Amino acid sequence: MSAAGSSGSESGRKKGSSTACAEASGGKAPSSMEEVISGGDAALQTLRRLAGSGAASVPEPGIAYLPCVTKPEKILCVGLNYRNHTSEIRMEIPKYPVLFNKYNNALAAHRQRISLPNTAEQFDYEAELVIVVGKEARDIPKQEALSCVFGYAPGNDLSARDLQFRTHQWLLGKTCDGFAPVGPCITTADEIGDPQSLRIESRVNGELRQSGNTCDMIFDCATIVSYISQYMTLKPGDLIFTGTPSGVIQGMPEEKRCWLKAGDEVQVSIEKLGTLWNEMA
Fold first, then answer.
1. What span, in angstroms and rounded, lies between the C-alpha atoms of 168 and 279?
2. 64, 190, 200, 218: which sits with the fewest CB atoms below 10 Å from its CB?
3. Model's pTM, two decimal places?
4. Are strands 186-188 and 2-3 parallel, antiparallel or unpaired?
5. Which residues does 225 contact at the CB level (< 8 Å), separation at least 6?
6. Is the pLDDT of residue 217 over 50?
7. Please, which residues have CB within 8 angstroms of residue 67's CB and are 6 or more apart in sequence?
8. Position with higher pLDDT, 227 vs 25
9. Which tens digit of pLDDT belongs to each residue from 140-178?
């Protein structure tokens, strides 16, 4: 099942009839993505009944999107998680997942225009599979880790490389406002099956820049979830960006680097999950 965060008057007008249909079919309709995630299987069953009830829906062109999750407790990211990407930027293959974080100010939605800060110049894209945590997880073994996943979404780990590498800490170049677009939807884990066999691509102004597959991850999704849970408690709605394949601007020869600029359109497409679109401003 795919679900998107949305806002706006049209979606608000549909909410009353949807709630009535949900209550008539034996359940209260969740009013936010956070309620869907925390509600688990019961909330999903309510939505499935609602989808099959003939309730009014909003045509896709009329949706005003929000980030898939608007208030995650944590936004965690894995760096250097594809061998070909590690090679293109001339870094060693890590022995452990390389973790960093973003904050909620970085969240952005599908179709949102993202303002590039005037404090940097070297803006780059990173197409990534994003894990949406569905259950609280602490010290979860790898073989059980995917049972804690609610679903997956396309994400773009936007980066200001000149800020990222100003010091040894990457944070400054990773969590600028709007630098974590996620969407358009969350696709539930049961619809995906194996998350390690998904084609992942990015395009800038229609030109293919990245083309890879999640099977090339150094640390797969189950390993990432299990590893993180050894050191901190994962909560429902937490987001985990899982790394990017080769093809980023940083990996190109210096004379061929053409950093993102205002007006550029960036798309991140992942098999079974859809396409995330953002314009730089």
1. 29
2. 190
3. 0.92
4. antiparallel
5. 131, 133, 137, 140, 145, 146, 148, 149, 234, 240
6. yes
7. 5, 107, 108, 109, 180, 181, 182, 183
8. 227
9. 999 999 999 999 999 999 999 999 999 999 999 999 999
Tracing tokens 């102004």 back to the chain, one arrives at 205
Q: Which amino acid, one-letter code, is at 58?
A: V
Sign, CA torsion 246/247/251/253: positive
Handedness of CA 213, 218, 220, 225 (dihedral sign): negative
Output the CA torsion 229→233→234→235 (10° steps): 160
8 Å CB contact between 127 and 245:
yes
Residue 165 is encoded by which pair of tokens? 């590498």
| Tokens of residue 223, six digits | 């390993």
Instruction: Answer whether the bond into residue 236 is a cis peptide, omega within 30°.
Output: no
Q: What is the pLDDT of residues 32-60, one digit of tens each?
A: 999 999 999 999 998 888 888 877 778 88
